[in-house]
Amino acid sequence: MELIRYALDNLDLLTSRTIEHIALVGVAVGLATLTGVPIGIAITKNERVARAVLYVASIIVTVPSIALFGIMIPVLSLIGQGIGYLPAVIAVLLYSQLPIIRNTYTAIHNVDPALREAARGIGMSQNQRLRMVEIPLAVPVIMAGVRTAVVLNIGVMAIAAYIGAGGLGTFISRGISQSDPRQLIVGAVAVSLLAIIVDYSLLAIQKRLTPRGMERAAETA
């Protein structure tokens, strides 16, 4: 009851921090999608480049989030942005690259060759095949990568409170520093609930973007 009372007493702050958290993750993953999807498509043309790009993206993910935020501080301090919004967004953008690039690459690479040949047979150019055949078929897998990136980085962004980025992580950091379990638990539960809600919301979008033929095939499989 004490946790519920604390949450209700601080509902306005909780709401504003949640919006702040969503905005931070949304900008970071949105930029990662705008960069990661074209990269994933481009590397399907060269297997060696694909391996190198995916290897670099995998290395970035292995760096502990607190260490990556720490690296950002001296680098971005050169332009006066060592703490706060910018380093948090850049770090989460980097963490988002692997699932988005990998899923895009896998989805485009695994398009049925017969479909490519059929599109070529009716006179489609390479760009037309990509835009009208390959990308629509790849959308469900690409969206799955975006969902993975969003859910993963909702948790990562909570740590960004330690570099002054804000968001729901402020409840967790203050709960630890002030030895206040109410703030700590409310912050942790809020982050978890946000991840679940956003994941199901993106799943609904993914289903809407999935071509009907693919949906029927999945249902009958």
TrEMBL record:
Major location category of this protein: membrane
Pfam families: BPD_transp_1 (PF00528)
Any one Gene Ontology BP term: glycine betaine transport
ABC transmembrane type-1 domain residues: 18-204
GO cellular component: plasma membrane
Topology in membrane: Multi-pass membrane protein
Zinc among keywords: no
Keyword field: Membrane, Transmembrane, Transmembrane helix, Transport
InterPro entries from the UniProt entry: ABC_transp_perm/SBD, MetI-like, MetI-like_sf
Family: Belongs to the binding-protein-dependent transport system permease family.
Protein name, UniProt field: Osmoprotectant transport system permease protein
